[in-house]
Specification:
Structural class: alpha/beta
Largest sheet: 4 strands, antiparallel
Oligomer: single chain
Number of strands: 30
Strand content: 15-25%
Distance between the termini: 93 Å
């Protein structure tokens, strides 16, 4: 080994090295280098410092020229034993360790990050940049934060009750990522007593200018050369002295000289190269995509929802932002933030690359539940106000309060409109002024409105009917504005299932206006949106990939005449007919909107008052008879018990018979059965024989008439409505070689009709379940009947094993006891 300095010995191995203003530049021997990407400079105590801007590590460079790491140290250091004297942890907001700075004696620093399986990785490339002691930065933006040059100084300031931070790497390594954590705060910068320290202080101030509330530089009196705040404290400085100096310091403003520090706005990685001496004229620093990634990691945490939606949440709080989409997505927010930080616009390619990387970051997180507008939390309910502040309302049995930060994660869509901050002292009776609802239907409408703010239960569909001029659309829009206002409150009939999924996926409340006919596919989709079952469709341009949407919504329909109703949809309807508005009482739409806007805060507060009372009464509600939509029925009973409504539960029970009649009147097959089987009589035969008996004509049967294979399925859907007319259906196999399946239809009279209706509420759950679910298992209707044995529930056990494979899942409520009389 030559006896020259470490730098001289290294340069001897690099014959093409050329001097620069800060050292030397040479082609890296560790890779095929055409651009002279290796920087060489003199460090503390004569160390040789090398950096390959192409990414080669120091060991590889040394090995390529037959040197070792010790050869980069002067002899006096090589003979000393390096020992670590302190470690400084850099953690994120949750306390997770990101990386660690290790301090050595003789003086030296190294950075390392934890490995997944244990141990340390001494490369911190790509690690998120955060300030030191991040978890101790105050949430209150009015509290003062001090910035010093080293971790030891920040720790010593913390010991006397000062909130202090710094960046890793020492002077000159401050980045905009650090500055973002101090947005809106009062900042005091404490430079070391040397040129590097004062330049670092100006770098920090320039980065914070326009971002922090105020920035001041305090040059501590009596410091020795290269002295720092620790020296000042050791000489007798106190917290009170430091605060007096900070109050007396002027607010820092940029000058022409500090404007040259504009490169402080360019974010860098922890080990990013210094490109100031690159003579090629090309930028070799981080790409725009990398800058976007670092900026995003500085502002947001990333996660994935239980529905596989990738999202980001601002470290300061607020709703979850989906990585792609509309104005409420991360893509738009990140582009805006980048322009504000760098004063230039990122291109689409860089945004796409950055979002791809951030998507990988998000997908590694543990799944979290994302809620839309409201969510159950503990014993209460949290409602997202939908404004930019991220506020929410928490409702419990004891009352309600507005929260500055939601305890649960909400997502929003382009349809989400802000609710007004609720006001106390309002009354739901004030709604009578703007809703054209009859007195008999008023309790059921109020009950539906309050129940709309109860998550995790099926909500019946409110069907507002009436002739032209009854204010159906206006009533629906007013009701929606009190629990889930939208930028598109009234929506047209969807053309297909995909359009329906888009309409219903973006808001908690959905209003379909002026519905003229409910098609079978829409009827099924509405039923599934009530119960929360999954909707399946094939992904475009693929042969086998499926998209599954599972959601539960609060739905309102308006229609002059919705036409024939299928039985399963009819059981999920609240039918409310509106009166004609007299000419003298009619308002213009503008007058109505102005009135509702003025009343909305008090009305919203009144709805919250009612919801709190219902939550308080709900545990004491015990119903001897549970109808269909049992959870909703219990809410109505609680509303009656709490005095929120009067007679809502009884009105709901009465509506069941009315809707059953609507279903039967609109179904020619049901009408034919009731006409053909009189009370007190019965009929037995096959499905084909039943069709022939009901329609003996040779002419074509009416529209909607089932085929022989579809008879059993139609009976299942019609069963609750037929039960109101005393009709029972049983299925059996003949005791013959043919083993034909025989249907027996029996029409009860008197008290037997009541018993038939009561038992239908128990049976229909399984009947609908079989009808809607078993096709997914590849089993035909006939095989279902053959395998079903009510005595031991063998089929239900079989289904229980398979229920997790079905789209949308199967709820435990679907598995109910079945009366053997029903037979299917």
């Amino acid at each position: 080994m030559n006896q020259g300095t470490p730098v001289e010995n290294l340069l001897a191995k690099l014959p093409d090295a050329k001097p620069t203003s800060s050292g030397w530049q040479a082609r890296c021997p560790a890779h095929e280098d055409r651009n002279a990407s290796l920087s060489v400079s003199v460090g503390d105590e004569g160390r040789a410092l090398i950096k390959c801007h192409a990414g080669c590590d120091t060991k590889a460079v040394c090995a390529a020229v037959n040197l070792c790491l010790a050869d980069l140290m002067p002899c006096k250091i090589q003979t000393k034993t390096r020992r670590s004297v302190a470690t400084y942890d850099y953690r994120d907001e949750s306390g997770k360790l990101l990386f660690q700075v290790v301090r050595y004696d003789p003086k030296g620093f190294n950075q390392r990050k934890p490995k997944t399986g244990g141990g340390w990785d001494w490369s911190v490339k790509g690690v998120r940049v955060v300030p030191y002691r991040l978890t101790e930065l105050p949430a209150d933006p009015t509290q003062t934060v001090y910035i010093c040059e080293g971790e030891k100084d920040a720790d010593n300031l913390a010991k006397i009750g000062i909130v202090a931070t710094c960046n890793a790497g020492g002077a000159g390594k401050w980045t905009p990522q650090h500055a973002e954590y101090l947005r809106g705060r009062r900042v005091i910068v404490l430079p070391d007593n040397d040129d590097a320290g004062r330049k670092h202080a100006k770098l920090v101030c320039h980065s914070l200018h326009g971002l922090a509330d105020t920035v001041r530089i305090v040059e501590l009196p009596g410091l020795p050369p290269k002295g720092d705040v620790t020296d000042w404290l050791n000489s007798g400085g106190t917290k009170a002295d430091l605060e007096r100096l900070a109050d007396a310091a002027p607010v820092w403003v940029p000058t022409e000289q500090t404007a040259k520090l504009d490169d402080a706005k360019a974010p860098v990685e922890l080990d990013a190269p210094d490109n100031s001496d690159d003579k090629s004229g090309k930028k070799s620093g981080p790409s725009t995509a990398e800058q976007l990634v670092q900026l995003a990691l500085a502002h947001y945490r990333f996660g994935v929802s239980t529905a596989d939606e990738l999202f980001a949440v601002d470290h300061a709080g607020g709703p979850a932002l989906l990585l792609r989409g509309n104005s409420e997505s991360l893509r738009q927010r990140l582009a805006k933030l980048f322009r504000a930080t760098h004063e230039r616009t990122p291109n689409a390619s860089a945004l796409a690359d950055a979002l791809c990387v951030l998507g990988g970051e998000a997908s590694d997180a543990e799944p979290e539940q994302l809620h839309l507008r409201l969510a159950k939390h503990g014993d209460g309910i949290v409602i997202d106000l939908g404004d930019k502040s991220g506020r929410a309302v928490e409702v419990t049995a004891a009352g309600w309060q507005v929260l500055t930060k939601s305890p649960v994660l909400f997502r929003r869509s382009a349809l989400t409109k802000a609710l007004p901050p609720p006001e106390r002292g309002g009354s739901l009776d004030d709604l009578r002024e703007v809703l054209n609802v009859t007195a008999v239907d008023w309790p059921i409408v109020i009950g539906w409105l309050v129940a709309a703010l109860v998550p995790n239960i099926p909500h019946p569909i409110l069907l507002l009917t009436g002739i032209q001029g009854t204010g159906k659309s206006s009533a629906a829009r007013v009701l929606l504005s009190l629990f889930d206002p939208s930028y598109a409150p009234l929506r047209s009939e969807p053309r297909d299932m995909e359009a329906w999924q888009i309409q219903a996926g973006g808001s908690w409340g959905v209003v379909i206006d002026n519905l003229s006919k409910i098609h079978p596919w829409l009827s099924d989709s509405l039923c599934k949106a009530v119960t929360g079952d999954g909707l399946i469709r094939r992904i475009l341009y693929t042969d086998g990939d499926l998209a599954v949407s599972s959601f539960r919504r609060v739905i309102c329909l308006t229609s002059i005449d919705a036409g024939a109703l299928r039985g399963d949809l009819g059981e999920r309807l609240l039918l409310v007919e509106l009166d004609v508005i007299p000419d003298h009482a009619r308002r213009t739409e503008q007058e109505l909107d102005s009135l509702v806007e003025e009343m909305q805060p008090r009305l919203f507060g009144a709805v919250l008052d009612a919801l709190s009372q219902v939550l308080a009464a709900l545990p004491g509600v015990n119903l001897a008879r549970l109808p269909r939509m049992a959870d909703f029925a219990k809410v109505l009973a609680a509303a009656d018990k709490a005095g929120v409504t009067l007679g809502a539960f009884d009105r709901f029970m009465g509506l069941q018979d009315r809707i059953a009649n609507e279903v039967l009147d609109g179904d020619p097959f049901a009408t034919a059965i009731l006409d053909g089987i009189r009370p007190g009589t019965s009929w037995t035969g096959t499905a084909s024989e039943l069709l022939s008996a009901l329609w003996p004509n040779t002419s074509k049967p009416p529209e909607g008439w089932p085929s022989p294979r579809g008879v059993t399925g139609r009976l299942r859907r019609l069963f609750p409505s037929l039960a109101t007319q005393g009709l029972r259906v049983t299925v059996a196999r003949e005791n013959t070689v043919q083993r034909r399946r025989l249907l027996t239809l029996t029409r009860d009279v008197g008290q037997n009709i009541v018993q038939c209706v009561q038992s239908s509420n128990v049976r229909v759950g399984c009947a609908e379940f079989l009808d809607d679910k078993l096709d997914d298992l590849g089993r035909s209707g006939e095989n279902i009947v053959q395998s079903f044995e009510p005595a031991n529930n063998r089929l239900l056990d079989d289904l229980d094993d398979k229920k997790h494979t079905l789209s949308g899942g199967i709820h435990d409520d679907d598995f109910v006891p079945v009366d053997p009389v029903l037979g299917f």
